[in-house]
Amino acid sequence: RCSLDDMLAWMRMWLSPEATPAWLSPAQRKAVWTSHMPMPVSTRMRAWENSHFSAYGYGWRLSDVDGVWKVAHTGTLAGMYSSVILLPDQRTGIVILINGEGEAARAVLGQVLTKPFTAPQSSPTVAYYAAQLEQERASERAATPKPDTRDRMIASARSLAEWAGHYRDPWFGDVALCPEGDRLRFVAARSPMLAGTVMRVGERWLVDWDDDSVDAEPWLHFAMVPAGGDARLTLSHVDPDADFSYDYADLDFHRTQACR
């Protein structure tokens, strides 16, 4: 955990390398802020920042804002959003710390605080960016509406008996999809917070997590592996706008044994 003073000290260290020459050599600093992975320039970056390139260094996102070099990183945890924005050529830095679920606020504040240094002749207001963001989200909601799951019901263990068992993903590890009473429970061995009850929504299945702070529910997709294989389980987001950090789509579970 870092206070604002800690973050400002961190920022000054990067913007004034001569103050701490022994901490990182010039070669190391150059490597950290060198483009190692090209990234797409999003529609928002083009519209808001007039960006021409986007890449990833070592722990930092590299881009330009109105032709001014920008180095930045963000932080996102439950109940906390943060951002560090550096304009190294101007020795200018911005720290944003938000004690709440503030993704939109972080995006808007980052723009409003940066623009006076990159395009002082045209500095849009908070209201302008907030309206732009709402239009963007309205278009996304219209294109991929969030499904209505209010009629969810607890799925009976019997209705999913064919798919019950212990599953394993090579990276994530083991999960149990086993009965507790007349319901089926999803329990991850390595992530205790990922435990919940399987619910039925029409002809689909999702996991209702016990811990409300886990705010991205997954659909469960079952299939039989051809040529004599066992059951396969994949996951996807119920809410298309869910935090990408819940990388359900990367998981590929295969059943290893029956429930005990």
Automatic annotation (TrEMBL):
Residue ranges of domain Beta-lactamase-related in the record: 3-106
Pfam assignment, any one: DUF3471
Superkingdom of origin: Bacteria
Gene3D superfamilies the UniProt entry points to: DD-peptidase/beta-lactamase superfamily (3.40.710.10)
Occurrences of domain Peptidase S12 Pab87-related C-terminal (ranges): 154-254
Official protein name in the record: Penicillin-binding protein
The organism of origin for this protein: Archangium gephyra
Top-level taxonomy: Bacteria, Pseudomonadati, Myxococcota, Myxococcia, Myxococcales
